[in-house]
Amino acid sequence: MDILMKIKGLVVDPISKMPIVVLEDPVSEHILPIWIGVFEANAIALSLEGIPTPRPMTHDLMKNFLDDLNIKVEKIVVTDVRDNTFYAIIYLSQNNVNYQVDSRPSDAIALALRVQAPIYVTEDVLTKAHGLKSEESLEDSEKLKQWLENLSPDDLGKYKM
Known about the structure:
Elements: E1 2-12, E2 19-24, E3 31-35, H1 38-49, H2 58-68, E4 72-82, E5 85-94, E6 97-103, H3 105-115, E7 119-122, H4 123-129, H5 141-149
Parallel strand pairs: 4-7
Antiparallel strand pairs: 1-2, 1-7, 2-3, 4-5, 5-6
């Protein structure tokens, strides 16, 4: 079963200093932190903040291709997590033909924001990721989990490049 998620925000992991996109199930309030790269975080932050760029960025270019080819992004789904790596699929349609494209969740999320497509996570991913350590080098994953669970709205959206 796929669970509709909303982006709660972007934060920086205080331990690894890597960006995290935090997804939240608005019904159950469960959160799913996904560690992402700096460039992907920038792409997501620009879209979240509604900041225009003078020229199309990579995900804007993807949106332009899809728009020009009359291809609709139906949804994105974070489908799996293996060895601390998340996987996603972008669901597309064109002229009643459906397509599925493998993607990193960060790229899928950045694109979904630009085309206003819903973001889903499978129930299996939420179950698997519950005890997932973000990085093998974390000394206290419980402390990080508590930090993420206690994020306030003031803590979110303050991702600085």
